[in-house]
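Exercise 7b. Backbone tokens:
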């Protein structure tokens, strides 16, 4: 197959972590073009707006010339059909990710049998990093610089400083 393959790395990325960055860097070596598709998942409460998450992901991938950051709403399978891409990249950490990711991969294939999900195993350095954990540590005043790119660290610090006590309790 010689046509240019477009692969999509979808996620909430609230916020992007070093684990996400590692996956996108590795995927960018495997495929000619990667679209990071950030979702405004209605069932999840995000601390960063969609625009902020796009902006942060753009910053951390500015050196990766074949990576483009965008957003989508609605069903992922429909979005893939619209942009004519049928390769999904997902990251896998421990066993805990497997069940959900397996179900998603099968469901997406059921919705559109052209969709193939490719899993990249996390690098062992990032196996315990999740956006949720990073947010929790930041909210409680911990140091997260080993887990996220510098611009994300700065943005999270700003966010924590700007929270009123009431919102702080809600978001912890
Ligand atoms: N530390 C990590 N190492 C490798 N992959 C990761 C890591 N953290 C998250 N991922 C993967 O990145 C993708 C996006 O994750 P996330 O931002 O949580 O979005 P979603 O809401 O779709 O789960 C998922 O495939 C997830 O398993
Ligand atoms: Mg997740």
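Sequence design result:
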């Amino acid at each position: 197959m010689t046509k240019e393959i477009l692969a999509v790395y979808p996620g909430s990325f609230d916020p992007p972590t070093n684990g996400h960055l590692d996956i996108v860097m590795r995927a960018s070596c495997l495929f000619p073009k990667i679209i990071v598709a950030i979702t405004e998942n209605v069932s999840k409460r995000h601390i960063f707006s969609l625009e902020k998450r796009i902006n942060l992901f753009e910053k951390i991938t500015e050196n990766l010339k074949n990576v483009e950051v965008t957003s989508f709403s609605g069903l992922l399978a429909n979005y893939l059909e619209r942009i004519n891409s049928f390769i999904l990249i997902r990251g896998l950490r421990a066993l805990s990710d497997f069940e959900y990711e397996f179900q998603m991969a099968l469901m997406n294939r059921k919705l559109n049998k052209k969709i193939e999900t490719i899993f990249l195993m996390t690098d062992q350095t990032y196996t315990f990093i999740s956006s949720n954990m990073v947010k929790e540590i930041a909210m409680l005043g911990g140091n997260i610089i080993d887990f996220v790119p510098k611009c994300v660290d700065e943005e999270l610090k700003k966010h924590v400083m700007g929270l009123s006590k009431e919102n702080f309790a809600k978001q912890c």
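Instructor comment: The helical segments are 18-30, 50-60, 76-83, 95-111, 131-139, 150-162, 165-171. The pocket of adenosine-5'-diphosphate (ligand 1) is lined by residues 11-13, 17, 19-20, 23, 41, 90-91, 93, 97, 122, 126, 129-131 (CB under 6 Å).
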